[in-house]
Specification:
The complex is a heterodimer of chains A (590) and B (246). Chain A is of the alpha/beta class. Chain A has helices at 17-28, 44-47, 56-61, 115-118, 120-128, 146-160, 197-208, 255-258, 260-264, 316-325, 420-429, 473-492, 562-578; strands at residues 2-4, 8-13, 33-36, 74-77, 85-86, 168-169, 172-173, 213-215, 225-226, 232-233, 269-272, 275-283, 288-296, 302-312, 352-356, 373-375, 394-398, 433-440, 449-457, 463-468, 497-498, 545-547. Chain A has 13 helices and 22 strands. Chain B is mainly alpha-helical. Chain B has helices at residues 11-14, 17-27, 64-77, 92-101, 131-150, 159-170, 181-197, 209-214, 226-229. In chain B, helix 4 (92-101) packs across helix 7 and helix 5 crosses helix 7 (181-197). Chain B is globular. Classes of the chains: A alpha/beta (590), B mainly alpha (246). Chains A and B meet through helix 3, strand 5, helix 11 and strand 19 of A and helix 6, helix 7, helix 8 and helix 9 of B.
Chain lengths: 590, 246
């Protein structure tokens, strides 16, 4: 039995970054908003307090803050001829659960996509010719340009107290910042984080090769900061417990540390935790979502929450799952290329090299999730791809994020995995080693997509999302090229030795952690036949439904997606509150 | 290859100072003094001395045979030497026992719906077994294989045969019936490292021996000032654990 509740103005599904931002903007516009969060409430002062928040086993290894695969997971196969098997234990990526979502346990890297990333297909076609992009590379433009999105990137950075240094201020290039970035109207809200030893070594080596180093844009406040919402963040204490942990210093921006204090005090906002959304009740004729059906996981009761406006702000996989099980929009078919739900699922491709430097004290435990130094000389289309045989690139980073020894203790190649020799090497190199990482772009491929698994089900009885995914030629080539650059920088450090270059080879594996930058599945665009939402993130098939998050990316740039996710949320909120609410209905006519 | 028998160690004793004596016998020389040292070792004691005598730890889930296997195995993976005591003297078997007895050991955060199909390595773990069940099966298989190969269970072997047996499992060359020996070895190595490096509140890393070995300072990890002051410099305060702040 399903109980139908009293209608509210808006429902937000998932109270992570995008759900919090939309809830805040919509309540400011006078709407009553209900936030449905499948996980528990989190109170930083209680849940992320010292000393327990430094528990490496509990958080980093046993996955305390992540989605529980017993409730919901994803199945994976490498191509459409195989049977997908469920990811029984999380490994490659770590979606979040609970108030704040994955915004609780992220590292804080807050990038703006490059101007060319926003218009990727047009840009590459214009620069390299009409036939340059191979047919199987199903990349597209976002439908919103960098210049249009710039004020919203700015808003998100100000919300987060992002630390960094501008490299392009209103068109003026500034050494020491990222000179490849699009023009910014404003400097970062906080000065860069303190440089680490590894970052300093990288900076000197990269500069000696003529590359342009800059500190990463980090939503780990380098100094206490009060954001425009009036919420104060603490200064980063460089504890080396960012990724996979909550922040006890309230220095890492998260929905909890930046918005929740005002949102939870807002009478027009009601948070319902343990509210697990099962499907959207879709009226195909009216082309609207009538209600959001959810299960109260404390009691098992089901409710329909009717709402005038529905914001789908769950994780990439859940957004796509809810569109598919609710039968909103046409599922993507890789054989015909038709349909858009589940299309252009993308990930991230790794590359890089480990450096061993006997005479340098790295102190890897003094770290933040987003400190260190970087270059963008080989990112996106910042370098000429003519004749290279691939598109895309990577930001190259030297940013040891932790020295937590359960997982972080590199040893030189050839070291046994155990025994006295392993001990000797581990003790010797723990403080004298770090990684240079190339976070490579992953451009959409016709054969990579998401759909519903025909065999495996989640705790609510729904099919799992099935990922048909593998790396393809473009990915291997980017990784090889960028790993060569990383090796060149590593050698310029005059290290004692380097590890084997980590250019990506072989099939995608769900086992080792790679990245929680899962994108696509509900891509944005300008054509309802090839996209799921329009440039305002409004569903083409349900005008009162807006979809948030990296699931709207047509492809994944090299950068961590959260900066663009936050900017797009503010962008969409702006158009909802200034235009849509005045005259509800499709904002773009196909 | 050394084949002198090592006496089967008692799990209960393994938690205390008596365990150190066996470790000293195994490695010789360096740790020998610890045998007669007072339970609270002096500050100048070599790193391989047992950090402190602890009360016997009754196992929560491990059988005596399993505990004997694990003690023998983890002490090969992390042997006593000048860098640290042997793994079992650092509480690693206690750690494994508690982990297997708890939520994780019984399948928390493990999707366990069927069908259970054989996947590729890239699909990761695809068995129906919980970690507790996996170790029950794996240890039994390892001892069966050891009996067939050497005529004794694993913990009855000399150091040379123990090492050879572990290398055979690591390479997947030991033939197990229920599961690949390589998978068992990998799980054993992973949980041993977890026990050696996790916060001591879980029963392993006793005396923060793992942290001392590498120079990890532990808690509170507030480096607002140290990050600049010690950039590129040696920073080795005595480590502290969660318990030191509780």
């Amino acid at each position: 039995m399903v109980t139908t509740l009293k209608e509210v103005d808006a429902v937000v599904i998932g109270v992570g970054w995008t759900g919090s931002i939309l809830a805040r903007e919509l309540t400011k516009a006078g709407l009553s908003v209900v936030g449905l969060e499948r996980g528990a409430r989190r109170v930083p002062a209680e849940d992320f307090a010292l000393p327990s928040i430094r528990d490496d086993l509990k958080y980093a290894v046993r996955q305390e803050l992540f989605q529980d695969t017993q409730t919901e997971t994803v199945s994976m196969r490498h191509n459409a001829s195989e049977t997908a098997l469920p990811i029984r234990r999380l490994g490659a990526f770590l979606p979040g659960v609970g108030l704040g979502g994955a915004g609780t346990h992220w590292n804080g890297l807050t990038w703006r996509l490059l101007p060319s990333d926003h218009v990727l297909k047009s840009h590459l076609t214009q620069r390299y010719g009409r036939n340059a992009v191979p047919a199987e590379m199903t990349i597209a433009d976002f439908g919103v340009s960098y210049d249009e999105l710039e004020p919203y990137y700015d808003r998100f950075e100000k919300l987060c107290g992002t630390s960094g240094k501008a490299g392009n201020l209103r068109g003026e290039k500034i050494d020491g910042g990222n000179v490849f970035e699009g023009p910014r109207q404003n400097e970062y809200p906080n000065k860069p984080l303190v440089e680490t030893e590894a970052g300093a070594i990288f900076e000197a080596a990269a500069k000696s090769l003529g590359y342009h180093t800059f500190p990463a844009p980090a939503s780990n406040a380098s100094a206490p900061y009060t954001n425009p919402e009036g919420v104060t963040l603490g200064g980063c204490v460089y504890c080396g417990h960012c990724e996979r942990f909550g922040c006890e210093a309230n220095a890492k921006a998260s929905p909890n540390s930046t918005l929740m204090p005002v949102l939870l005090a807002e009478p027009k906002f009601e948070l319902r935790t343990h509210a697990y959304v099962k499907e959207l009740v879709y009226d195909r004729h009216a082309r609207k979502v009538k209600a959001v059906r959810y299960v109260d996981t404390r009691t098992g009761e089901e409710f329909d929450q009717p709402a005038g406006l529905v914001i789908l702000g769950a994780y990439t996989f859940n957004n796509t799952l809810l569109m598919l099980v609710s039968k909103i929009g046409a599922p993507y078919d890789p054989k015909t290329g038709k349909g858009a739900v589940g299309k252009n699922y993308c990930y991230q491709v790794g590359g890089g090299v480990q450096v061993f430097t006997e005479d340098k004290e790295i102190n890897p435990f003094m770290a933040t999730g987003a400190g260190g130094m970087n270059i963008d000389d080989f990112n996106g289309d910042n370098f000429d791809h003519a004749g290279l045989g691939f598109f895309g690139g990577a930001w190259i980073q030297c940013s040891p994020s932790n020295g937590r020894p359960i997982l972080t203790r590199a040893v030189p190649p050839g070291t046994p995995r155990w025994g006295a020799k392993w001990k000797e090497a581990t003790a010797k190199w723990y403080n004298h080693s770090f990684y240079i990482n190339a976070s490579c772009a992953n451009y959409a491929h016709r054969e990579n997509y998401l759909d519903l698994d025909p065999i495996y089900r989640d705790a609510l009885g729904r099919p799992l999302i099935r990922m048909t995914y593998n790396f393809h030629e473009n990915d291997y080539k980017i990784s090889a090229y960028l790993t060569d650059v990383a090796v060149k920088i590593a050698k310029a450090m005059n290290p004692t030795m380097i590890g084997p270059p980590q250019a990506r080879r072989g099939d995608f594996s769900v086992v080792p952690y790679q990245s929680t930058h899962n994108t696509g599945g509900t891509m944005m665009g300008s054509d309802p036949r090839t996209s799921v939402v329009n440039r305002y993130l409004q569903s083409w098939d349900a005008s009162n439904l807006f979809v948030m998050g990296a699931s709207v990316f047509p492809q994944n740039a090299s950068y961590n997606p959260t900066g663009a996710v936050g900017a797009l949320a503010y962008w969409s909120a702006h158009w909802i509150t200034t235009t849509y609410l005045k005259s509800p209905g499709p904002m773009v006519h196909a | 290859m050394t084949d002198e028998p090592i006496r089967r160690r008692n799990f209960l004793k393994g938690a205390g100072a008596a365990g150190t004596a066996a470790a000293a016998a195994l490695t010789g020389g360096l740790a020998a003094r610890a045998e007669t040292a007072a339970p609270a070792a002096p500050a100048t004691a070599p790193a391989s001395a047992a950090p402190q005598a602890a009360a016997p730890e009754p196992p929560l889930t491990l059988t005596a045979t399993e505990a004997a296997f694990l003690t023998a195995a983890v002490d090969m993976l992390i042997p006593a030497d000048g860098l640290s005591p042997a793994a079992s003297d650092c509480g690693v078997v206690v750690f494994i026992d508690r982990q297997l007895a708890g939520a994780w050991g019984n399948g928390a955060r493990l999707y366990r719906d069927g069908p259970f199909l054989k996947g590729k390595p890239e699909h990761g773990y695809q068995l129906a077994l919980t970690p507790r069940e996996f170790f029950r099966v794996g240890i039994a298989e390892a001892n069966d294989w050891s009996r067939k190969t050497y005529g004794k269970e694993f913990d009855g072997l000399g150091a040379g045969d123990r090492e050879a047996a572990l290398r055979a499992m690591e390479a997947g060359k030991a033939e197990f019936a229920g599961l690949p020996s390589k998978d068992f070895f990998d799980a054993l190595l992973t949980i041993t490292m977890e026990g050696f490096f996790a916060d001591p509140i879980y029963g392993g890393n006793r005396g923060m021996a793992g942290w001392k070995m590498v120079g990890y300072p532990g808690l509170p990890a507030v480096y607002s000032d140290a990050i600049e002051k010690y950039r590129g410099k040696v920073f080795r305060p005595p480590p502290q654990s969660i318990a030191d702040f509780s």
